[in-house]
Amino acid sequence: MECTINWVPSGGMTFVAETGSGHVLAMDGAPEGGGRNLAPRPMETVLAGTGACAAYDVVLILKRGRHDVRGCQAKLTSERAQTDPKVFTRINMHFVISGKALPEQAVQRAIQMSHEKYCSASAMLAKTANITTSYEIVEA
């Protein structure tokens, strides 16, 4: 995996990342740090990537279990350290899973497997953050 980050000088503190798969992602700093608030902050992208990694796992595990999953939303809330480096210290991932007749046990298992075995991003962040999960199931 690779990624190239380029600063856009005319954008204040805007950076553009090009991923190894050829996709582009813009990031910007807060106005008080010289940014113009044109894109997500770098740490917001870390949090978003972690949520997407876990949601991907949950959907894949449910689909492989032949469950009729129709939607998956991960809502992440976090806290960061007060001093530099301002690492994540607490993260909660709340999943809203929709589908037809989804067994609660299967949803619990998918979330647990992602958290304990498959999600690389949350495994890394768990070195500094207490990560908790919660969920709700919505009948589609």
Automatic annotation (TrEMBL):
It holds the Pfam family OsmC. Gene3D superfamilies: 2.20.25.10, 3.30.300.20. It comes from the Bacteria. InterPro entries: KH_dom-like_a/b (IPR015946), OsmC/Ohr_fam (IPR003718), OsmC/Ohrsf (IPR036102). SUPFAM superfamilies: OsmC-like. This is OsmC family protein. It comes from Piscinibacter gummiphilus.
